From TrEMBL, chains A, B:
InterPro entries: Glutathione-S-Trfase_C-like, Glutathione-S-Trfase_C_sf, Glutathione_S-Trfase, Glutathione_S-Trfase_N, GST_Zeta, GST_Zeta_C, GST_Zeta_N, Thioredoxin-like_sf. Keywords: Isomerase. This is Maleylacetoacetate isomerase. Belongs to the GST superfamily. Zeta family. Gene3D superfamilies: 1.20.1050.10, Glutaredoxin (3.40.30.10). Residues 86-211 form the GST C-terminal domain. The keyword Isomerase applies.
C-alpha cells in the first residue's frame, strides 16, 4: 500500500493515524503541496482527480479524500473499527467528523490562506483573524458535541474513532497557529491523550519522511 | 420525523433529497439562517451543537451535519440505499461526496460570503471571483471523477446515490450565481437528469414551506 501524503497536511495526517491504528504497512509518496505538486498533470490525471492530498494506492485502486479513504480502510481492514457500527455512536462520530472536515478545516487550509494573501491581499492581521474566527466557531461546536457525549478518554468512549482522527490534526494545526484553545478543555484532553498513543505519535508531521523543520 | 431546514441551504437540500428518495414523511421546521436563527441559544444547546442547518429529529435522537444524517437514514431505512455497499462503488461515491462537501461548499456558503463582505470588506467583484474560483477548482475535480467512472444517468450508475445528493444542490447554487458550467458536461447531464426526478424535485428550494422568492 502507498500513501501520497504531505507531512503538514491535516487530511493526510488523518489517514496516517488510521493506517497506524490498523497496523497497515505503507510507503509514503511525498507530495509537496507548498510547491504545487498536487496539481501536477500526471498526479491529477492518474492518481487523484481532487488535485489534493492524501491519495491511497491499494493494489490498483487509487482513492482520494481522507474521509473516503478511512471508510474504505474500515471496510477492507475492519480491525480495529474506526467508524463504529452501533447506530447512535456511529451517527455521533460521523457528525463530529463532518464538523471538523466540512466546517473548520476547509476554511483554513493552505490554498485558502494563500488566496487571501495573493488575491485579496489581506494583511497578516486579517489572515490571523480569519483563521481564529473559524477555529473559534468550529471548536465551540466540537466542544458542545463532546459535552453532550464525551466520557473520555477519546472523543466518544474507550476506543479511538474517526472523530479523534479528525480532531487531533485540527487541534495540532490550531496550536501551531498559536490559537488559544483553553475554552475547549474536553477537546484538549482528547488531544493530550492521543499524543501519548503510539499510532497517533507515528502519524505526527515531524515523524514523516518528507518533514521540513 | 422532523427536519430543521432552510430552503436555500445546500446541506438541507441534500437531506431533503435523501428523505424524499426513501419516501420518509417529515415535518419541516424552518430555520432562517439569513437572520441567524441557527445560532439561537435553545437550538444550539438542545438541537444542533454545530449551529447550522440541517438537523434531523427522529424520535428523541437529534442529529446535525448532512453527511452524518444521510448515513444515519441509510442505516435505519436502507431502501433505497444511498451509500452503496459494494466497496469500490462505495469508495467512489464517498470520494465524490467529500469533494463537494469539503472542497467546494464550505468556501461558498452564506457565513463565508458574509465574512468576506463585512470583515474583509471585499468588493462585489472580489466576492464573485472568490465564488467562481472555488466552483471552477472543485467542479473540474468532480468532472474528472465522472470522466473516470460515470456511465450515467446518475453520477455512478443506474441509481441515485449520496454523490448525486451532493452534486445537485451544488450545481443549482452555482447556476443561481451565474457560473458558467459548460466545462462540466457530465455534471450538468446528471443535474438535468435529476431535475426530472420526483424526489429531487420535491427537495428543491422553491418547493419548501419556508421559500422566499
Amino acid at each position: 500500500m502507498q500513501l501520497h501524503s504531505f507531512f503538514n497536511s491535516s487530511t493526510s495526517y488523518r489517514v496516517r493515524i488510521a493506517l497506524a491504528l490498523k497496523e497497515l504497512a505503507y510507503e509514503t509518496l511525498p507530495v509537496n503541496i507548498r510547491v504545487g505538486e498536487h496539481r501536477a498533470e500526471d498526479y491529477v490525471a492518474n492518481v487523484n482527480p481532487s488535485a489534493s492530498v492524501p491519495a491511497l494506492i491499494d493494489d490498483d485502486f487509487r482513492l482520494g479524500q481522507s474521509l473516503a479513504i478511512i471508510d474504505y480502510l474500515d471496510q477492507k481492514y475492519p480491525e480495529p473499527r474506526l467508524i463504529p457500527l452501533e447506530p447512535a455512536l456511529r451517527a455521533r462520530v460521523l457528525e463530529f467528523a463532518a464538523l471538523i472536515s466540512c466546517d473548520i478545516h476547509p476554511l483554513n487550509n493552505l490554498r485558502v490562506l494563500r488566496y487571501l494573501e495573493t488575491e485579496l491581499e489581506v494583511t497578516p492581521q486579517q489572515k490571523s483573524s480569519w483563521y481564529r474566527h473559524w477555529i473559534a466557531q468550529g471548536m465551540a461546536g466540537a466542544e458542545r458535541m463532546l459535552e453532550r457525549g464525551n466520557t473520555g478518554p477519546w472523543c466518544f468512549g474507550a476506543q479511538p474513532t474517526l472523530a479523534d482522527m479528525c480532531l487531533v490534526p485540527q487541534v495540532a494545526n490550531a496550536l501551531r497557529m498559536d490559537c488559544d484553545l483553553s475554552p475547549y478543555p474536553r477537546s484538549l484532553a482528547v488531544f493530550e491523550h492521543a499524543s501519548k498513543h503510539p499510532a497517533f505519535e507515528a502519524a505526527q508531521p515531524q515523524r514523516q519522511p518528507d518533514y521540513i523543520a
